[in-house]
Write a structure and sequence with these properties.
Chain A: It is found in: Cytoplasm; Nucleus. Chain A: Keywords: Cytoplasm, Hydrolase, Nucleus, Protease, Proteasome, Threonine protease. Chain A: GO terms for molecular function: threonine-type endopeptidase activity. The structure holds two protein chains of two kinds. By secondary structure, chain A is an alpha+beta fold. Chain A has a domain of about 190 residues: Aminohydrolase, N-terminal nucleophile (Ntn) domain (Glutamine Phosphoribosylpyrophosphate, subunit 1, domain 1, 4-Layer Sandwich). In chain A, about 25% of the residues lie in helices and about 25% in strands. Chain A contains five helices and twelve strands. In chain A, the strands form three sheets. In chain A, strands 10-1-2-11-12 form a five-stranded antiparallel sheet, with helices on one face. In chain A, strands 5-6-7-8-9 form a five-stranded antiparallel sheet, with helices on one face. In chain A, strands 3-4 form a two-stranded antiparallel sheet. Chain A is globular, with a radius of gyration of 24 Å. Chain B has one domain: Aminohydrolase, N-terminal nucleophile (Ntn) domain (Glutamine Phosphoribosylpyrophosphate, subunit 1, domain 1, 4-Layer Sandwich). Helices cover about 25% and strands about 35% of the residues of chain B. In chain B, strand 3 and strand 4 form a beta hairpin. The two termini of chain B are about 40 Å apart. Classes of the chains: A alpha+beta, B alpha+beta.
């Protein structure tokens, strides 16, 4: 009897340990929770391009793991993507597609298009049948104009004039549905996005802290990190923090870390 | 923990899991010197799922009293079965009740309240039940039914004015009750409350209040699958309750992105 060769898996997830995990859970083991970005992310199309907005709270179950995380990810100089869902998944998938886009830019010599990012993301997410828990709002301005899309974890996409995702999406959507119009100016658009994110921050428990905004127009982008901080620390000690026991300073010696390096002109190697 | 209405739990009568409600009836059949008792077991008659449901109710306090809005749809699962269900009803002289959830349970609640108001009138003592009292009564009813695992599958909004004091409260099928300046049931909590938290103030006039409620109902119409475009608004003031005739909201669908969504990528969706 010949034993069949073990073929290493080519890709995708390996579900070998699922049975054992189920058995452990039945015996009472609590599975570790993953870091979710219970979130409010929004995007809207205004006169000159796209405005994306996001809150900055990352939650691990009931605990706030990161008070000021970045949910607006860079994809290309003219394309940005907000991510909701499992933080690791959104980070990894946007990083991966961002590097694929850069290679593609080198290959074609052209600016990346939003539909390219869209197709790369949706193909990846569909391939993993929803197990990559990333819900994204993708926006950018390319040669064909401004585009705004939402991408769901199972791989479906929508093209919309305004979009919201995450646990605070209903609160933000109620603001958009009542106040959105076409051809907003930059100022009106940013105000509307900030209002929608604030609705998410104050009405949804999974969202909070600060508002990040990103404005993308033809040939120009502005990443406004912490554009609004509606949740400052209320009681801050004006004296600052002091260590109780002061250590005596006996002697001081300062060594600069940058050394001066001499470059010697050598003969070029002969090939 | 979520209670599953359709599962069997440990029964103290059978000493094993069962879904039934037991009724012991004594039928003494004299055979010789025995008395045989029969134990008749009826299949469960608890509410397990709602059948005909109404969608959200939104209500606010305004300058002269309470304004309440609800649509007139009764859905049978995913079918829009009934399109003229009045879900806002005046109770006595001082209150207004709005209900979402199972319509038959709402009709049962109306019967309980009719009896309550009747008994109150029969006292003929010059006093009449105000909104706080009716809300408390409803809370007790809903909570006790929930404790017997046989809930009235509704989320109720109770508003009214008595002696110049405005009151607006809500109670739902598990007995959670609270009062506030603006309340909503169901999806209204997620879509309408954020708008109301931003834009409600103490001194809304009737017109401003109606405009605010229309804004909330429009968002619900766009984003709640069980909403219908036939809205009823009702108000209650010191003078009494008025339920206005139904009307429909104007909606806007002409966004450029909706006209040709795949303009950028032919063949995509």
């Amino acid at each position: 009897m010949t034993k069949s060769l073990d073929i290493p898996p080519k890709g995708g997830f390996s579900f070998d340990l699922c049975r054992r995990n189920d058995m452990l859970e039945k015996k009472g083991l609590k599975a570790p929770t993953y870091l979710k970005t219970g979130t409010t992310i929004v995007g809207l199309v205004f006169k000159d391009g796209i405005i994306l907005g996001a809150d900055t709270r990352a939650t691990e179950g009931p605990i706030v793991a990161d008070k000021n995380c970045e949910k607006i990810h860079y994809m290309a100089p003219n394309i940005y993507c907000c991510g909701a869902g499992t933080a690791a998944d959104t980070e990894a998938v946007t990083d991966m597609v961002s590097s694929q886009l850069q290679l593609h830019r080198y290959h074609t010599g052209r600016e990346s298009r939003v539909v390219t990012a869209l197709t790369l993301l949706k193909r990846h997410l569909f391939n993993y049948q929803g197990h990559v828990s990333a819900a994204l709002v993708l926006g950018g301005v390319d040669i064909t104009g401004p585009h705004l899309h939402t991408i769901y974890p199972h791989g479906s996409t929508d093209t919309l004039p305004f979009a919201t995702m995450g646990s605070g999406s209903l609160a933000a959507m109620s603001v958009f549905e009542s106040k959105y119009q076409e051809n907003l100016t930059r100022e009106q658009g940013v105000n509307l996005v900030v209002e929608a994110i604030c609705a998410g921050i104050f009405n949804d428990l999974g969202s909070g802290s600060n508002v990040d905004v990103c404005v993308i127009t033809r040939g120009n982008k502005e990443y406004l990190r912490n554009h609004l901080q509606p949740n400052p620390r209320t009681f801050v000690n004006p004296k600052g923090f002091t260590f109780s026991k002061k250590t005596e300073v006996l002697s001081t010696k300062i060594t600069p870390l940058k050394e001066k390096v001499e470059i010697i002109e050598a003969d070029a190697m002969e090939e | 923990m979520l209670f599953r209405w359709d599962l069997a739990y440990h029964c103290l009568v059978c000493s094993r899991p069962c879904k039934r409600q037991h009724t012991r009836q004594l039928y003494p059949y004299l055979t010789g010197s025995f008395v045989i008792t029969m134990d008749s077991v009826t299949e469960s008659q608890r509410t397990l799922y709602p059948y005909v449901t109404g969608s959200s109710v939104v209500a606010i306090k305004y300058k002269d009293g309470i304004l309440m809005a609800a649509d007139m749809g009764g859905s049978y699962g995913s079918t829009l079965r009934y399109k003229s269900v009045e879900r806002l009803k005046p109770i006595g002289k001082h209150s207004l009740l709005g209900a979402s959830g199972e319509i038959s349970d709402f009709q049962e609640i109306m019967r309980y309240l009719d009896e309550l108001i009747l008994v109150d009138n029969m006292w003929d003592d010059g006093n009449s039940l105000g909104p706080k009292e009716v809300h408390n009564y409803l809370t007790r009813v809903m909570y006790n039914r929930r404790n017997k695992f046989n809930p009235l599958w509704n989320s109720l909004v109770l508003g009214g004015v008595k002696k110049g004091e405005k009151y607006l409260g809500t109670v739902n099928m598990i007995g959670i009750n609270y009062e506030d300046n603006h309340v909503a049931t169901g999806l209204g909590n997620h879509l309408a409350r954020p708008i109301l938290r931003d834009e409600w103030n103490e001194n809304l006039t009737f017109e401003e209040g109606v405009k605010l409620l229309e804004k909330c109902m429009r968002v619900l119409l766009y984003r709640d699958r069980s909403a219908v475009n036939k809205i009823q608004i009702s108000k209650i003031t010191e003078e009494g309750a008025t339920v206005y005739p139904p009307f429909s909201l104007r909606t806007y669908w002409e966004f450029k992105a909706f006209q040709n969504p795949t303009a950028g990528a032919e063949g995509s969706w």
